[in-house]
Design brief:
The complex is a heterodimer. In chain A, 31% of the residues lie in helices and 28% in strands. Chain A has 14 helices and 17 strands. Chain A is elongated. Chain A starts with a helix and ends with a strand. Chain B is α/β, with parallel strands linked by helices. In chain B, a hairpin with a 5-residue loop joins strand 10 (195-203) and strand 11 (209-216). The chains are: A alpha+beta, B alpha/beta.
């Protein structure tokens, strides 16, 4: 609820500007500046969200008002959600200022719901957030309780009893419905629940009834997690946060060993692995590596992460240390059991794949390339360089334009076409390229290559092979009837 | 008894297969091979310097050497080299008779990256040849770096070719050093074949030399240029070995 003010105060806390004045966030709503959030001090002075700024100023002249910044709030919320991943993988955003955590099956790790809730609240409070929270059987009930009965842990099956005394506003229905209930004298959820559902369905629609049932624990609205849940994950918690990089890597290796067992049971290997380092104070750093073939060898995985960590532009900042490290196989594929390598070819292929993975982790997969033929006769597009990690066996065959016993017809090095000025005198062809004059000794051409008009209209090119007196062999072309370009150099 | 003998014969056959491949790879050019004691040494560092403006030729020469050595070819090149001297074209390799699908290309942003990747690649014995393209004379490429590459090549058996553009030959620990320029190709109608004026400027186990070689795209080997190109006689210098003796 205080997220926007907390965001600013957290930022200011590092500097000495954190004043003592009450802070409010304002935005233009219906052509008037209104408060959208107030901090604790402002709230204690009687200010509340929705008030016009002019009224607030009249009440508290020494008010500090800041413009709302919803994208920043949203980003902060996602940041907190990332951090909450350390408690359960099911974290969903409940905009504008809420988070829903599905702790089914996770609470025993923290000695029960109550302790878990206390720990989350305490940790967030320490990070400078005003936080309210509750645990209940359904998300709707938990949200209502978090807003109106902070710290409640509703016992399983006791949702209806806990939620019933809450005011109808806690259902977070649309204002018309809430207003209608108030006018009808139905002030609490319990009073609403005591009426026949059919009446509400007729007036407010089925969605309202569903929300009511969900709040009372009778219906279940599943939460959709923000991040896809991987099939394979292993994690390790530390009682004392760890800082040293070697420990991080050895932990990754240990987790990779555990993942390998899981993967092996299902005959799969990881194609994409993600390590998440949860900082004790705040924040998560996720680092992913990809492999060219399904892998489950912990030593290889550790090596890839070592390369990746060493090559990071912004190194992993441990802050006060990491208290949770998690390794996930974000993508897994079936992999054949490796029954020793008698065929030498297989082992060599594997070695090269490992080299490619290592270099891709260091330099990025777009830099480790393999050539594949392309179905076009335009010289610069006749081949493509694809990331070697993802390269499939191409459907096309390489097709040479050179016939047997002939000299090469395509250059070894292709430039992006550079304009040359051509000088012709007494049957001699000369051209100037990069400030050097080349006298053609032999010229052969033209080889006419039409551009693909169905893609983009471009003038036809007439290619000439030219050898100069020194032995340079150039590939020049004339565009249409006009200018000349140098496109490549033969070996 | 006979079973034992059979077993021994079988093991012999396995051993024969496992024997290391010929240490020296003949280039196909008789005079050059004689000078090199039979050919280019595998698992060693060789330098190929491009004469000024002859970078494409030197690339072709290096590609030819790699094709002679065989096996997968790993080519490391700097981003800058592609801008200045042209991107490697798969079709160009194809026309030289070299299968582009055997080629792995690594683009690195700088020299430090190139050397680092080269050391990594030299631990992978499955590669046939590693070509490291370096532009200019960076400080990082010092004697230590040279020695590291040479050691890596010797340990893994990968043949390392250091392809230098825009650099003057200086110190080095390479097995051989070539200075390559393009030479005019034949006078006949079928001109434009890759012909190199290759100078063997340094040869640790033999005399230096200078030849005009042609890369035969069909047979995949070097051969004396049979064209009318001027073939200069090899520089008549005594071999360092002979001098010591």
């Amino acid at each position: 609820m205080r997220l926007p003010t907390d965001r600013l105060q957290r930022r200011w806390s590092h500097k000495a500007v954190a004043g003592t004045a009450p802070l409010v966030i304002v935005a233009k709503i219906d052509n008037a500046m209104r408060l959208t959030a107030v901090d604790r001090k402002a709230a204690s002075l009687g200010l509340c969200a929705g008030q016009p700024l002019a009224n607030a100023r009249a009440m508290v002249p020494a008010l500090k008002a800041m413009a709302a910044n919803e994208p920043a709030d949203r980003k902060l919320l996602e940041h907190i959600a990332d951090w909450c991943d350390g408690f359960t993988p099911f974290v969903a955003l409940d905009p504008p200022h809420g988070l829903l955590l599905d702790i089914t099956g996770a609470s025993h790790l923290f000695d029960g719901e109550e302790k878990m809730l206390d720990r989350i609240r305490a940790d967030l409070k320490r990070q400078g957030f005003a936080v309210t929270g509750a645990v209940a059987g359904t998300a709707t009930a938990a949200r209502a309780l978090a807003h109106y009965r902070d710290g409640t842990v509703a016992l399983p099956g006791a949702d209806s009893g806990t939620v019933a005394p809450l005011p109808v506003e806690a259902l977070d229905l649309d204002p018309v419905a809430t207003h209608a209930f108030r006018r009808a004298g139905l002030k609490t959820i319990g009073q609403v629940a005591s009426r026949k559902r059919a009446e509400f369905t007729a007036r407010f629609g089925a969605a309202m009834v569903f929300t009511l049932d969900a709040a009372l624990g009778g219906a279940e609205a599943p939460i959709s997690p923000r991040l896809p849940l991987p099939d394979y994950r292993a994690e390790r918690r530390f009682a004392e946060p760890v800082v040293v990089q070697d420990v991080l890597l050895s932990t990754v290796k240990l987790l990779a060993g555990r993942l390998a067992k899981l993967l092996e049971e299902r005959g799969e290997g990881a194609r994409c692995l993600q390590a998440a380092f949860f900082r004790a104070d705040d924040g998560v750093r996720r680092i992913a590596v990809e492999t060219g073939a399904p892998t489950r060898d912990p030593a290889i995985i550790e090596r890839l992460f070592r390369e990746k960590l060493a090559a990071l532009a912004d190194p992993v900042d441990p802050g006060f240390g990491f208290d949770l490290i998690r390794l996930e196989a974000a993508r897994a594929e079936p992999c054949r059991a490796e029954a020793g390598g008698f065929t030498t070819g297989e082992k060599e292929k594997k070695d090269i794949r490992f080299l490619v993975d290592r270099l891709a982790a260091r330099f990025g997969s777009h830099r480790v390339l393999k050539f594949q033929p392309n179905d076009t006769h335009i010289p610069e597009s006749a081949f493509v360089a694809v990331p070697a990690q993802y390269a499939q066996i191409p459907a096309l065959e390489w097709e040479s334009t050179r016939r047997k016993k002939e000299a090469p017809r395509r250059p070894l090095r292709l430039l992006s076409p550079e304009p040359v000025s051509l000088l012709r005198s007494d049957g001699e062809m000369r051209f100037r390229w990069r400030n050097a004059l080349h006298v053609a000794r032999r010229v052969e051409g033209p080889e006419r290559i039409a551009m693909e008009w169905w893609r983009a209209p471009a003038p036809t090119r007439d290619y000439f092979r030219v050898e100069d007196e020194e032995g340079h062999r150039f590939w020049l072309y004339r565009e249409g009837a006009g200018s000349w370009f140098l496109h490549g150099i033969f070996a | 008894m006979s079973a034992t003998r059979e077993k021994i014969a079988f093991l012999r056959a396995v051993l024969a297969q496992a024997e290391p491949p010929e240490i020296r790879v003949p280039l196909g050019h008789p005079a050059a091979d004689a000078c090199l004691n039979g050919g280019l040494k595998r698992g060693a560092l060789h330098e190929v310097f491009a004469g000024a403006t002859h970078e494409a030729s030197a690339s072709g020469f290096a590609a030819g050497l790699a094709a002679r050595v065989g096996g997968p070819l790993f080519w490391i090149r700097q981003d800058y080299a592609a801008l200045e001297h042209g991107e490697l074209a798969a079709t160009g390799f194809l026309e030289l008779g070299i299968d582009p699908s055997r080629l792995l290309l690594l683009r690195v942003p700088d020299v430090a990256g190139a050397l680092r990747a080269a050391c990594d690649a030299l631990t992978c014995g499955a590669l046939g040849t590693l070509v490291i393209e370096i532009v200019g004379a960076p400080k990082l490429l010092d004697l230590v770096a040279h020695r590291r590459l040479a050691l890596g090549a010797a340990e893994s058996g990968v043949t390392a070719l250091l392809l230098r553009f825009g650099a003057e030959p200086d110190i080095g620990v390479a097995e051989t050093r070539w200075i390559v320029r393009a030479a005019p190709s034949g006078e006949d109608g079928n001109w434009g074949r890759p012909v190199f004026a290759a100078e063997l400027a340094r040869n640790r186990h033999g005399p230096p030399g200078q030849w005009v070689m042609e890369w035969s795209c069909d047979d995949g080997e070097f051969r004396p240029a049979d064209s009318g190109a001027v073939v200069r006689a090899p520089a008549d210098r005594p071999s360092p070995a002979a001098m010591v003796a």
